[in-house]
Amino acid sequence: MKIIQLTDSHLMPSGIVVNGVDPEKQLRAAVTDIVEQHADADLLVMTGDLCNFGDPEAYALLKDILSPVAFETRLLLGNHDKRPQFREAFPDHPVDENGYIQSWLDTPYGRLLFLDSHEHGVIGGIYGEDRMGWLDSALESAGDAPVTVFIHHPPIDCGIAHFAHIGMHDDGRLIARLAAHPGGIRHIVFGHIHVPLSGTSREGIAFSSGQACSHRFITELDRPDPMWTGGNPCYRIITLDEVGLRAYSVEVGQTPTTRAELCAGP
Ligand SMILES: [Fe+2]
């Protein structure tokens, strides 16, 4: 199956620039490309920070921008979002019994889990007892099926100074619970850090982030105050099939140079 990941769109009402980037322009270009190039996709997942301040006008704009997407969509909340405003704008979006924006989808290649790590007034991620209870039942009912997780905040230490105090505030409980799943965790897909990162946790779980569709950082790992930068709108194509999981980064609007010749091998 083909999954499209968009992350950290940070939408504002039309015309407002955030950290030197117009988030509406970025997201519209990315969604236009997705609709043109990936009509065969099965799912679009936006891994949080949908809107920069969570205001109703920005969620209305998000709804408008996503309206040409014909396939299933799951939206996750990030620290910049606001849950009540999101639910007002997207009343049909799946939620758990406590109103967190959490759900799962079963596929031929295992269960996909969409987790809600947003907590009002907290920049880092929170995954408390009530959410963990939902996760327990989601994992237990998955049985031996492998699981792929989508969440805004990385449940691991990303190793970037700027995020040293705004990661997942859970002392490793979420990743430990995931690691105990007998079917295994195929991958954890997240956003939040605005730059591409891939790795493996000490439990042996693979993870990666998408690059933000809006503003992103110049890669200065040790600086607590790195510079923001703009760049092409981007998203990821994630394939999940009998081979496993693969993630490809796409930039919209690249300038072609010359065409590569066919490499017939060997
Ligand atoms: Fe963000």
How far apart are the first and last residues' alpha carbons, in Å?
29 Å
The overall average pLDDT, rounded, is 98
CATH topology: Purple Acid Phosphatase, chain A, domain 2
Computed over alpha carbons, the radius of gyration is: 18 Å
Which sheet architecture does the biggest sheet show?
6 strands, mixed
Question: How would you explain this protein's 3D organization?
Answer:
It is a single chain. Strands 4-5-6-7-9-8 form a 6-stranded mixed sheet, covered by helices on one side. Strands 3-2-1-12-13 form a 5-stranded mixed sheet. The protein has a two-stranded antiparallel sheet with strand order 10-11. It contains 5 helices and 13 strands. The model has no long low-confidence stretch (mean pLDDT about 100). It has a single domain, classed as 4-Layer Sandwich (Purple Acid Phosphatase, chain A, domain 2). The chain binds fe (ii) ion. Fe (ii) ion binds next to loops.
List the topology elements:
Blueprint: E1 2-6, H1 23-37, E2 43-47, H2 56-66, E3 72-76, H3 83-89, E4 103-107, E5 110-114, H4 129-142, E6 147-150, H5 173-179, E7 185-190, E8 197-200, E9 206-209, E10 216-217, E11 228-229, E12 234-241, E13 244-251
Parallel strand pairs: 1-2, 2-3, 5-6, 6-7, 7-9
Antiparallel strand pairs: 1-12, 4-5, 8-9, 10-11, 12-13
Helix pairs in contact: 1-2, 2-3
This protein binds fe (ii) ion.
Residues 8, 10, 49, 78, 80, 192, 194 line the site of fe (ii) ion.
